[in-house]
Amino acid sequence: MRLSRYFLPVLKENPAEAQIVSHRYMLRAGMIKQQQAGIYSWLPLGFKVLRRIEEIVHQEQQRAGHIPLLMPTLQGADLWRESGRYDDYGQEMLRITDRQGREMLYGPTNEEMITDIFRSHVGSYKDLPLTLYHIQWKFRDEMRPRFGVMRGREFLMKDGYNFDIDKDAALHAYNRHMVSYLRTYERMGLTAIPMRADSGPIGGDDTHEFLVLASTGESEVFYDSAVTDLRLGDRAIDYDDRDQVASVCREFTTLYARTDETHKEDLFNQIPEERRKVGRGIEVGQIFYFGTKYSEPMKATVQGPDGAIVPVHMGSHGIGVSRLLGAIIEASHDDKGIIWPEGVTPFHCGIVNLKQGDAEADAACEAIYASLTALGLDPLYDDRDERAGGKFATMDLIGLPWRITVGPRGLKNGVVELTSRRTGVSEEMPPEEAVQRIAKIYAGI
Ligand code: ATP
Ligand code: MG
Q1: Is 205 a residue whose pLDDT tops 80?
Q2: How far is 344 from 325, CA to CA, in rounded Å?
């Protein structure tokens, strides 16, 4: 993309309404525009990152054997009456009446609808296990929408639902979700710690929230600092191997890590003092096992191997896709702007032409742009007739992890400059080498 033809409405001033850094940078970098409290348009740069995050979520869900579908945002009230949640859900649910007087709602979540799909089409244990998921907009009429996309009213969520013959099989699905989530967040450059959470009205003790540590997080967290060193890395996972998947979950959940809802002071005090940490975290996902809570009232049953008709065991598993943009920025920025991890960056690299209109500099930039594009990469070429300082400030603000700077002086010596956004370190090298370096960085991502 050439910046002269792109739509990147950056703001010079700090927007007064933004209280936290991610919200401020998303507005300043021209990623989002607020339309109403907690409701945003996704401008091209923000939309690009949102799509990249979605893509990672899709890949990791499908790697775990989960199947994508798409359910609508609007739902009928009747399904929610079957589960008893239509009245229980309260004011967070946006209720709508259509011209026929039918009661509808903008879905805050999809347990009822997916259970309805399941009961309409599945009747035998032979069709299990089954996990279906979608990535769809949700609406919750939050009392205090704030912090930009972190606590929106309309927000994008991945929500997945497992259907299993018994509790053991459903717990395997739960564990599969935990491991696939760990990999998902790591690919986004995040450390998200699974923490034992409160199941609230859902019941049972099988629920974990995934928290990204950040001083601006809304949850208070208590943890053993050793959990922050755990990494899944690129080890091979066989998602059908119950023991392997369970052992990875044990590895990540044995050390103490809890939110204030489940915190136990006596257990916490058993951690060696220097590793005992209290901080704040952003909830970027949650997994639940809730047994037959929906399948019983909604009659989602299957015939088991012995011929008996039994309600299926279910769980639901969510990732805050749009909230993740905010969480990633909270975890990765400096005073000049965003620093995108390579896994989610909107463009792989920036190209800055220090002297637009100089025949040699223009030709070198065009050649670099063409080579990167031919390699399947997506560069952003700042080809505007602007001062170098302004170009650098824009690149730093929008946070592309790599920048190639091209100017007549370097070109005389046959070199351009390759700069890392994270470290600020610049190296001179011939243009072809800079292209190869970028290609190599992204080859493994
Ligand atoms: P919270 O406690 O933050 O209100 P929740 O526990 O009600 O969230 P879940 O039902 O667990 O939310 O939804 C799954 C995920 O969706 C959450 O982990 C979070 O990342 C995201 N999410 C929930 N509410 C919002 C919101 N208002 N804006 C953006 N993302 C949200
Ligand atoms: Mg939650």
Answers
A1: no
A2: 9
- Rounded Cα–Cα distance for residues 199 and 290 (Å): 9
Residue bearing the CA closest to ligand 1, atom 11: 286
Tokens of residue 235, six digits: 């080890």
Helices (H), 290-374: 321-331, 359-374
Which H or E run contains 149? none
Compute CA distances 345 → 40, 114, 197, whole Å: 20, 33, 31
In contact, 349 and 438? CB cutoff 8 Å:
yes
- What is the span of the domain harbouring residue 227? 7-338
Q: Does the global pTM surpass 0.85? A: yes
427 CA → ligand 1 middle, Å: 42
Q: Which atom of ligand 1 is nearest to the CA of 324?
A: 20
pLDDT tens, residue by residue, 35-47: 999 999 999 999 9
Nearest to 38 by CA among 153, 136, 120: 153
Does the structure show a pLDDT above 80 at 19?
yes
| Token output for 395 | 């690149």
Residues 250 and 372 in one domain: no
Single out the residue of 169, 175, 141 nearest to residue 155, CA to CA.
Answer: 141
| Dist. CA 283 → ligand 1 center (Å) | 7
What DSSP assignment string belongs to 203-246?
Answer: -SS-EEEEEEE-TT-SEEEEEEGGGGG---TT----TT-HHHHH
Alpha-carbon Rg for the chain in angstroms: 24
- Ligand 1 atom nearest the C-alpha of 285 is 18
- Amino acid at position 41, single letter: S
Tokens for 281? 């975290």
CATH code of 436's domain = 3.40.50.800
Query: Ligand 1 centroid to 320 CA: how many Å?
Result: 6
Which residues have CB under 8 Å from 355's CB, separation 6+?
A: 361, 407, 408
Examine residue 2 and state whether it is found in any structural domain, yes or no: no
Q: Give the pLDDT confidence score for residue 204 in this predicted structure.
A: 53
Residues 6 or more apart whose CB falls under 8 angstroms from that of 200 comprise: none
The tally of domains found in the chain comes to 2
Q: Select from 133, 141, 286 the residue to mutate for testing ligand 1; criterion: most ligand atoms less than 8 Å from CB.
A: 286
Q: Ligand 1 — pocket residues by CB below 6 A?
A: 109, 140, 142, 151-152, 155, 157, 283-286, 318, 320, 322-323
Look up residue 198 and give its two tokens.
């409160």
Q: Is residue 205 part of a domain?
A: yes
Tens of pLDDT, residue by residue over 287-308, are 999 999 999 999 999 999 999 9
Which residue reads 């302004």 in tokens? 390
N-to-C CA span, the chain: 21
